[in-house]
Design a protein that fits this description.
The chain is of the alpha/beta class and about 290 residues long. The protein has twelve helices and eight strands.
């Protein structure tokens, strides 16, 4: 099947054909009915300027590409120690822009004092539906007792737990700030004891050697979901759907660090049926949120 033919596959209810020479703006209305993007960030990427790192502009990008709801975290949490302040600013920014389309996912760093209070504030005061963790930047492993406690506390509060496996390819990282990806293996032993936990994995290159097998075992161990932003290779979403149920795959763009169009093309290039497309673009995320 040629690339041109792949790009004409139906996508969502619009199910319109894609002209390979169309601009992003021309493609956008054809993407879907109100897709949910579970991997969006606000504020500044510490290492370079990116288009869309102003919230108002990012909201315009999301709407132009047919995104009706975005789960957002703050890039400030990577290096800031005042996590509570980061979360308050995130919630305020989400209220100020997008008319409710931005859902804030606060950060919790369990290596800092009073992290349990940060978790409580995210849930009780800021009314966040979940939290987003960065074990790589915050310096802990998933087999440490503190992560197990965090997992159980988040589950008890019915918070969605997002885990960013990486933030930047190792080949492009700053020479003075090398951050290896998060090792997920410990999750397979923790999840059976916390069956109510809902875990969303962000920035996973699931098509790397051994990754598909690990993801398959994690989805069997508990309520684990994976988004598509870091998938590489033609037909990557379809290949992932052959290894884990498409009901565990979510649409994520990693905007504004990555171009939104890249995630859209991954959906268009993969041999998925309409039910799978709708599930990945929208229904799976809404089921987790309900």
């Amino acid at each position: 099947m040629t690339r041109r033919r792949l790009l004409t596959l139906p996508l969502g209810a619009a199910a319109l054909r894609l002209d390979c020479n169309a601009s992003a703006e021309q493609i956008a209305p054809r993407l879907s009915e109100e897709a949910v993007d579970v991997n969006v960030h606000l504020s500044k990427w510490p290492f370079r300027s990116v288009q869309g790192d102003e919230t108002a502009g990012l909201v315009k990008q999301l709407r132009r590409h047919g995104i009706g709801q975005a789960w957002v975290g703050s890039l400030d949490c990577l290096l800031h120690k005042d996590i509570s302040g980061v979360n308050v600013r995130l919630a305020k920014e989400c209220r100020a822009h997008g008319d409710g389309m931005l859902l804030p996912f606060g950060a919790v760093n369990p290596t800092l004092p009073d992290w349990e209070e940060d978790l409580r504030r995210c849930h009780e005061e800021l009314k966040m539906p979940g939290i987003r963790l960065h074990p790589d930047y915050h310096g802990y492993r998933l087999d440490e007792p503190v992560f197990e406690r965090l997992l159980k506390l988040a589950a008890a509060r019915q918070l969605i737990l997002q885990v960013a496996v990486g933030m930047e390819d190792a080949r492009t990282q700053h020479s003075r700030l090398q951050v290896p990806p998060v090792d997920l293996k410990a999750l397979s032993t923790l999840l059976p004891d916390v069956p109510q936990a809902r875990v969303v994995l962000l920035n996973v290159n699931a098509l790397q050697s051994g990754a598909l097998e690990l993801l398959a075992s994690l989805t069997e161990a508990g309520q684990v979901y994976c988004e598509i932003s870091w998938l590489e290779g033609l037909g990557g979403v379809g290949r992932l759907a052959e290894s884990i149920s498409s009901s565990r795959i979510l649409f994520g763009s990693y905007a504004p660090i990555f171009y939104l169009e890249a995630a859209m093309l991954k959906m268009r290039e993969s041999p998925l049926n309409r039910q799978q497309i709708r599930g990945i673009l929208r229904h799976n995320a809404r089921r987790i949120m309900s």
